[in-house]
Amino acid sequence: MKLVKGARIALKTLFSHKVRTALATLGIVIGVCAVIVMVAIGEGAQKQVLSKIQAMGTDLVIVTAGQVKIIAGRPRQTGNVTTLTLRDAKAIREETRFIRAVAPAQSRKMAVKYDLLSTSTTVTGTTEEILPLRTLSVEKGRFFSDEENRTLQRVAVIGRTVAKNLFEDRNPLGETIRIGKVPFEVIGILGEKGTDLVGTDQDDIIYIPLNTALRRLFNITYLNNIYVRAEGTEMIDDAASGISSLLRERHRLRGKADDFTVQSQTEILRTERETSRTFTGLLSAVAAISLLVGGVGILAVMLISVRERTREIGVRRAVGALKRDLLLQFLMESLVLSVSGGLAGIILGALISLGTAFLTKWPMSLSPVAIAVAFLFSACIGVAFGVYPAVKAARLDPIEALRAE
C-alpha cells in the first residue's frame, strides 16, 4: 500500500512540474536512444560482414603467396610473393586430405580497352573450378572450359561493372576487348557480387584462362592465390593444417618462417566476429556515457525539488510521515523519471533505427538484449542518482523544515 501511495504522490508531484520533469528525463531519453541506435549500427554491420563471408562458403581455404598483413585497413601481400606455383596447386589437390576442389589464380590490375572506351580493372587468370569455390554465377553466355585453358584460348568472362564501363548498354557477348595489347573475346557476363569485406567492387573484374594469363599476358610462372574447398566445414581446420604442412615441406622451410599464408573461412569468421563485437562494445560504451549524464540531470532536478519542497516535507513529518515514507517518495520520483525516460528512449531509438534502415538501406539490426540492458541501466541510474536527494529529504529536521520560507 505504501509503495502504491508513494507512487501516486510521486506522479502527482512530477506532473505538476511538467517542464522540469521533461528536461530531467531528456538526458535519459537521449542516452537510451543513443545506446539502441549505436548497437543497431554495430549489429547490422556485423550481420552484413558475416553474410558476405558465409556467401563465399564456410568451407573455403585461401592460400596466398607471401605474408598477408592488414595495412590501412586492407590486406596486403608482403615478402616473397613468387614462391607459389601451379605445381603447389597440383600437390594440394593430389596429396592433401579432406580437399574437394582446388582453383589456382593469378591477378593483376591492367588497362582494358574496347573501341574508344577504356578502364582499369582486375584481370584474374584461373580455372573453371573457381565458379563453385567463389560462388560465382554466369548471367549471360558461359564460362571458359578446361579445354580452353589447356589450349591457351584468349577468351574472357567479365563482371557487370566492367560490362557497364566498356559497353554501356550494348551486348558484350562476342565482342573483342584488349587487355594490355592482347585481344580477348568476351564469352560471358558474371552475375552481380557486390562489394567484399574491405569495400572492393567484386564486379570490377575479368576472368581469363589461367594458362593464357601466365604465358600470353603476364609472362610469369607463379600464382597469387590458390583457392581450396574442404570436404566440409568440420574438416576445414584439418585441411588448412595439411596444406600448411605440405607447402612448408615443398618450399623447404625447415627452421624458417612461412613464405605463404593459409586462411580458412572459419578463421576469418572468428576474427570478424571479434572485431565486430569490439566495435559494437565501443559504440555502446560511448553511448552509455550519455546515460550517466542523464543521471546527473535527474540528480540536479531532485536536489532542486527537495530544496523547493522543504516546507512540504516538514508538514508531512509533522503529521506523522516517517523517514522511510519520504525516502520512498523521492526514490519513486527518481525512478519514474528514469523509467519513463527509458521507455521514451526505446521508442525513439527503435524508430530512428528502423527509419534509417528503410530510407538509406544502411544495415541496422535492433538488439532485444541491448534494449533490455539499456532500460535496466536507465532504471538503475534513476535509483542510484535519486538516493542522495531522497536521503537528504528524509533527514530534514521537521521543525527547521516548517520554519523554511
Automatic annotation (TrEMBL):
Residue stretches making up the ABC3 transporter permease C-terminal domain: 285-398
Pfam families: FtsX, MacB_PCD
InterPro entries: ABC3_permease_C, MacB_PCD, Macrolide_Exporter_MacB
Main location: membrane
Record's GO cellular component terms: plasma membrane
The keyword Nucleus is annotated on this UniProt entry: no
Keywords for this protein: Cell membrane, Membrane, Transmembrane, Transmembrane helix
TM region(s), chain numbering: 21-42, 282-306, 326-354, 366-388
Positions of the MacB-like periplasmic core domain: 21-243
Source organism, top-level taxon: Bacteria
GO terms for MF: transmembrane transporter activity
Cell compartment(s), UniProt: Cell membrane
Entry membrane topology: Multi-pass membrane protein
Family: Belongs to the ABC-4 integral membrane protein family.
PANTHER family associated with the record: ABC TRANSPORTER PERMEASE YTRF, MEMBRANE COMPONENT OF TRANSPORTER-RELATED
Full protein name: ABC transporter permease
Species per Swiss-Prot/TrEMBL record: Candidatus Nitrobium versatile
Lineage: Bacteria, Pseudomonadati, Nitrospirota, Nitrospiria, Nitrospirales
